[in-house]
Design a protein that fits this description.
2 copies of one chain form a homodimer. With 252 residues, the first copy, chain A, is of the alpha+beta class. The first copy, chain A, folds into 2 domains: 64 residues, Arc Repressor Mutant, subunit A, CATH 1.10.10.10; 166 residues, Chorismate lyase-like (Chorismate lyase), CATH 3.40.1410. In chain A, 30% of the residues lie in helices and 35% in strands. In chain A, a hairpin with a 3-residue loop joins strand 1 and strand 2. In chain A, helix 1 crosses helix 3. About 8% of the residues of chain A have low confidence. Chains A and B meet through helix 1, helix 2, helix 5, strand 6 and strand 7 of A and helix 1, strand 6, strand 7, strand 9 and strand 10 of B. Strand 6 of chain A pairs antiparallel with strand 9 of chain B. The structure holds a DNA duplex (30 and 30 nucleotides).
Chain lengths: 252, 252
DNA sequence: TAAGGTTGTCTTTCACATAGAACAACTGGG
DNA sequence: CCCAGTTGTTCTATGTGAAAGACAACCTTA
């Protein structure tokens, strides 16, 4: 059985894992990387499969191989996406006041699936507004947002409003937003979102699902957010408070 | 179809396209869907390929097929269960009071890498205690924890302590824990953690990195946690507070 | 120079993906 | 009732993914 749900070829999964590790700087360019036989044993695959993955990495310019000598990771280089600028980019987003571009890909009224109906607290099949947006910074997409809103709430604004203003601002024109519930998880990029986020199918994405409640306790919005982990992370501070943790701050 | 070199099997690409269309309500449940031959012509694939996609859709409960009669989409509300156990198991963990087993895989003093040194606030190469644990519930592993502690802190307890008590409890015997910083992201399962978490290589994992500070502001502990997204999610409540979100509660 | 390790290249074998085709079993409408 | 249309089933054939192994070419080091 394929737990991942995506029937990606073995060599491609090995490639994705190794590429992630090389890009993280996990291999010192001055130290010989593990040999093909060793990788094959680690991954429990044949050497041919490892070789296919390594050939792809070499074409990407991420590693250097030489017969008899071994395989070496390339130096991170100037444009290296180290883990430091992870935080950097998040802080940029916040301090710059979210200087990002938003592209509206879909905006339609659709019948609610069972899952969406459960999130919004409507009956399955009820008409709901679904909008899909991609948010970018400097032309690079980093988040993929799918939003569902009950029909009566959605009718208060149109497609143009959504392309310009944040949805939350639109909602707050008519509603008192009280609280939200978030579930954070991870998921693989599928064929739909991968090109929109400019990642490969099978790449790891941060998955945040949020329900927004108004003052009456009604769900007025459900958001499914997918983030590129190399460009966006979720940061939380916790304070120790009598044997328990309580949160201190989160993003907005 | 898509000849962009994507390594997804054809039948799976057809499945993804059709699933999206069915979920969007594009097929009236009262009207016969196009026949297998017609789909094959539309997608420019063989009928066998179309049939595999349709079989998957039928297993998902999204369509109904009958020999001689045809294929019909099911009513929008009748979608497959799919991701219910996400929330289910998490609630189990909390209500059962975290009835989990912990297995200590590694317990060693190692020289700090540059990355770990940065997290702990020590010089690179300094000796630090590294422990790797896997936490399971009912025999199923759901989290993989790598912990680093400065040497002088780690010397206060031994391997046996760690196998029994939570690390935080051990630390609080001698320290005043003040706060923590968490970074939440996503990462692919590599050859090391995949077997320990009983997932496939290349599966998506939830990645939480935590720095724990004592009252003096020193980093006492750094934790790298990997969670199986099908068994564990991170939940946060937010309250709307004067145009901003502030957190309400988190896990501990 | 010699030895051992590393990547490059070539087998063989098996399983699966896909195409193309024919036929069987079944349904609904004229 | 019969027939056209639909899904179910079973063939053949080809290409790719993958494992396992053997050997060649090459580099580094003792």
């Amino acid at each position: 059985m394929d737990e991942a749900g995506l029937p990606l070829p073995l060599y491609h999964r090995v490639y994705l894992v190794l590429r992630q590790q090389v890009e993280e700087g996990r291999f010192d360019p001055a130290v010989k990387m593990p040999g093909e036989h060793e990788f094959a044993a680690d991954f429990r695959v044949s050497r041919i499969t490892v070789r296919r993955a390594l050939e792809m990495l070499e074409r990407d310019g991420l590693i250097r191989r030489k017969r008899g000598a071994g395989t070496y990771a390339r130096a991170p280089g100037a444009a290296a996406p180290q883990r430091d600028n992870l935080r950097g980019l998040l802080e940029n987003l916040l301090t710059m006041g979210l200087r990002t571009q938003v592209r509206l890909l879909e905006f339609d009224y659709v019948p609610a699936t069972a899952e969406v109906a459960g999130l919004l607290g409507v009956v399955p099949g009820a008409s709901v507004l679904r909008a899909v947006r991609v948010r970018s910074t400097e032309g690079v997409p980093f988040s993929h947002l799918t939003t569902w809103v009950p029909e009566d709430v959605g009718r208060r604004f149109g497609r143009d409003d959504m392309a310009e203003k944040p949805l939350l601002a639109l909602l707050e024109q008519h509603e008192r937003i009280a609280r939200a519930e978030q579930t954070i998880s991870a998921i693989l990029a599928d064929a739909t979102v991968a090109p929109r986020l400019q990642v490969e199918i099978g790449a790891a994405l941060l998955w945040v699902r949020r329900q927004v409640f108004n003052a009456e306790g009604r769900v007025i919005e459900a958001i499914d957010s997918l983030y590129r982990p190399d460009l966006y992370t979720y940061q939380i501070g916790l304070v120790r408070d009598g044997g328990l943790w309580s949160p201190q701050s989160a993003d907005s």
